[in-house]
Amino acid sequence: MASPELGEMLAFAPFQGGIWEMSAEMAADRGRKLGGRVAVVTGGARGIGFAIAARLAEEGAAVVLADMRVETAREAAASIRAGGGEAAALPVDIGDNASVAALAAEVDRLHGRCEILVNNAAISDTTGIDRMTMERYHEVIRVNQDGAIRVTVAFLPLLRKAGPGRRILNIASIMGLRGSPDAIPYSTAKGAIVNFTRALACDLAPDGIMVNAIAPGFVDTPMSILADGSHEYNADWFRDIYVKYGRIPLRRFGKPADMAGPAYFLCSDDAQYVTGQILSVDGGVSATF
Ligand SMILES: NC(=O)c1ccc[n+]([C@@H]2O[C@H](COP(=O)([O-])OP(=O)(O)OC[C@H]3O[C@@H](n4cnc5c(N)ncnc54)[C@H](O)[C@@H]3O)[C@@H](O)[C@H]2O)c1
Predict the structure, then answer these.
(1) Best CATH choice for the domain 32-287 from the list 3.30.572.10, 3.20.20.140, 3.40.50.720, 3.40.630.10
(2) How high is the pLDDT of residue 26?
(3) Mutate to test the pocket of ligand 1, among 48, 143, 218, 285 (most ligand atoms within 8 A of CB)
(4) In which residue ranges of the chain is pLDDT below 70?
(5) What residues does each domain of the chain span?
(6) Is the CB of 67 under 6 A from ligand 1?
(7) How far is the C-alpha of 164 from the C-alpha of 270, rounded, in Å?
(8) Tens digits of per-residue pLDDT, 68-116?
(9) Which of 85, 103, 183, 197 lies at a C-alpha separation of 20 to 30 Å from 128?
(10) Which residues contact residue 44 at a Cβ distance below 8 angstroms, ignoring those fewer than 6 apart?
(11) Angle 165-143-57 (CA atoms, 0-180°, nearest 5)?
């Protein structure tokens, strides 16, 4: 159990850096910068994918929330529309070739192009080498690694016939940049996404398609719920190592909204000379040791 002192420290920590705040000027500037662009976000039904999709919609993009949780995606799309954005939900299993081909065909039918592709969908995994079966390994790779590549291949024709501002944004992880225990398939897949991003950026530069990734740190989403139902944030090891001893310099879990701004930047016209880059959005975790 966490000591009372630690609990006290967390409750009364004077430093609350990094909380999202928006000035009136920033708010007024938001609106139509992605107007006329079609954005497809895999795993857009909830969590980080939804936060990114909502931000892209806020900036004027017509977003497609492509997810295997179809009902959740429909509700999410409805909430974006209720806020004045343009959004639709489509079903997909990014682990399946036919399902991904059907998604690309439907986006083609609806919009005829795709300016922004966000490869966000993934599953969590906490398997270390001793507990891992090859079946589990291949399952995580099929979704988390091959899924992003499969979707990219299927959407390339739609990106190539799209208008200006063409972007691919992959959602990697700090786990793809650093090692940590009990995460062999997940870390392997995310490491692959990191270098897929760099290699793809080279291949697609002649097409004017910028390819970048964000590497989130610890973000409070349904993925943060551990196998036993508890939240990672409440684990003693997490609070001790990451908060008490400063391994998250900003001393808090990330929120999905913290991912949205950096994701938007990489999808925007402000990032037209940025490609092949991995932006860690992690409260400083990867800056320390
Ligand atoms: N939450 C974190 O702490 C964290 C940290 C680093 C990276 N990430 C990455 O961020 C991304 C989003 O994660 P999240 O935390 O929002 O997770 P989440 O579980 O809340 O959301 C993932 C979404 O992807 C969808 N999905 C999963 N498998 C799919 C499939 N085969 N086909 C279609 N949709 C599928 C789910 O239905 C869900 O809506 C993932 O790539 C994840 O690896 C998350």
Answers:
(1) 3.40.50.720
(2) 59
(3) 48
(4) 1-31
(5) 32-287
(6) yes
(7) 13
(8) 999 999 999 999 999 999 999 999 999 999 999 999 999 999 999 999 9
(9) 197
(10) 50, 52, 53, 63, 64, 65, 66, 67, 73, 76, 89, 118, 120
(11) 30
**Cα–Cα distance for residue pair 213/277, rounded to 1 Å:** 6
Query: For residue 30, which amino acid is it?
Result: R
Given a contact cutoff of 8 angstroms between Cβ atoms, the answer to whether 63 and 53 are in contact is yes
Q: How many CB atoms sit inside 10 A of residue 69's CB?
A: 18
The DSSP line for the chain is ---HHHHHHHHH-S--TT-----HHHHHH-SSTTTT-EEEEETTTSHHHHHHHHHHHHTT-EEEEEES-HHHHHHHHHHHHHTT-EEEEEE--TT-HHHHHHHHHHHHHHHS--SEEEE---------TTT--HHHHHHHIIIIIHHHHHHHHHHHHHHHTS-S--EEEEE--GGGTS--SS-HHHHHHHHHHHHHHHHHHHHHGGGT-EEEEEEE-SB-SGGGB-TTS-BGGG-HHHIIIIIIT-SSTT-S-B-HHHHHHHHHHHHSGGGTT--S-EEEESTTGGG--
Closest approach atom of ligand 1 to CA 254: 3
Cβ 186 under 6 angstroms from ligand 1: no
Residue 168 tokens, joined: 């691919």
Q: Which two tokens stand for residue 281?
A: 């959005």
